[in-house]
Amino acid sequence: MDTNLKPTISINIATYNRGRFITEAIESVLAQTFNDWELIIIDDASTDNTAEIVRPYLADPRIKYLKNETNQNISLTRNRGLKESQGKYIAILDSDDLWCDQEKLTKQYDFLEKNPDHCLVGTGIIVVDEQGQEKSRYLNPETDKEIRNKILAKNTFAQSSVLYRKEAVLEVGSYNPNLNGIEDYDLWLKLGTKYKLANLPSYSLKYRIHGGNISLTDRWRLMKINLELIKKHHDDYPNFTLAILRRYSRLFLYFILKFFY
Question: Out of 58, 157, 207, 243, which could bridge 153 as a Cys pair, Cβ 3.0 to 4.6 Å?
Fold first, then answer.
C-alpha cells in the first residue's frame, strides 16, 4: 500500500488488558490476502503488557497504536477508532478474537463493491474457549430479508466479523456511548433502517469466550438495555411480538437463576 494514499479498509482493534490474546488478533490481520488496509489499535488505558506486545508490529507503517490516557468505555474507544480511520470501509476485530479465513476481507470487500445498497456484511462464527479450542460454530442469516425477520429476536452479527461503510455509520450517529457492551447491536439496528444488511456463509471468525467477556460479567444490565432497543425499533422490523416474548423469557430465567441459585 502506498502510505501517501488512503487505505481502502481501516481495521479497528479496541483493547483493554488483552495482552495474552492480542498477538493472535494482529497475526490474523497480517495473514489476510487483501492488503490495502491500515490497522488502528486503540488501547483503553490497559495496565498489562499490551503496549510492549504491540510495539514490534509498529515497524509496519500500516499499523498505528493509540492509547487513551484514562479508561473510557468500549463505545467511546470504538468511536475514537472510527474517527481516526481513513478507509472507505471499516472492519472490526476485538483483541480477544481472531480471523480464521485469509480471504475474509477480500470476500467482504467484493460483496460491498458489488452491492452498493448494502452497508454491512458479516460472516459465520466459530466459538472457541480461552485456549482456542472450538466449542461450537454457526452461520448467521445471510440475506437482508432473513436478517430483518430475526434481528429483533437475536443479534445477527458478531462484532468482530463485520465490514461496513464508514459513511453509513457516521450517518446514523456511530456507536452510542451510553450503551457500553451492546453498542454493536444498537448500531446494526440503526443501519438497517436505512440500508440493507448481509452475512456471508463462511466461517471467518473465531470468537473467544472467556471470563472477561463483557456479555458474561454484565449480562443483567445488557438484557434490560436489549429490551429497550427492541421496543425502540418496534416499527422498523417484523416479528416484534416474538422478539419481546423471547427477551422477557430470558430476563425472567436469568432473574430466577441469579436470585435463587
Answer: 243
**What does CATH list as the number for 9-260?**
3.90.550.10
Residue pair 16/57 in contact by the 8 Å Cβ criterion: no
| Non-local CB neighbours of 253 within 8 Å, separated by 6+ positions | none
In terms of Cα–Cα distance, which of 221, 216, 229, 218 is closest to 176?
Answer: 229
User: Could you identify the residue written with the cell 477480500?
Assistant: 106
C-alpha span between 216 and 186 (Å, rounded) = 18
pLDDT at 179 over 60: yes
Query: Residue range 28-52: average pLDDT?
Result: 98
What are the boundaries of each domain within the chain? 9-260
Is residue 2 scored above 80 in pLDDT? no
The contacts of residue 40 (CB under 8 Å, 6+ apart) are 10, 11, 12, 13, 64, 66, 81, 84, 85
**What is the Cα–Cα distance from 242 to 152, expressed in whole angstroms?**
9
Q: Please, which pLDDT band fits residue 9 given cuts at 50, 70 and 90?
A: very high
pLDDT digits (tens, 9 = 90+) for 196-224: 999 999 999 999 998 765 544 577 788 88
What are residue 13's DSSP bridge partners? 41
Cα separation of 107 and 111, whole Å? Answer: 6
* Eight-class DSSP state of 129: -
pLDDT digits (tens, 9 = 90+) for 112-132: 999 999 999 999 999 999 999
Determine the Cα–Cα distance for residues 191 and 181; give it in Å rounded to an integer: 18
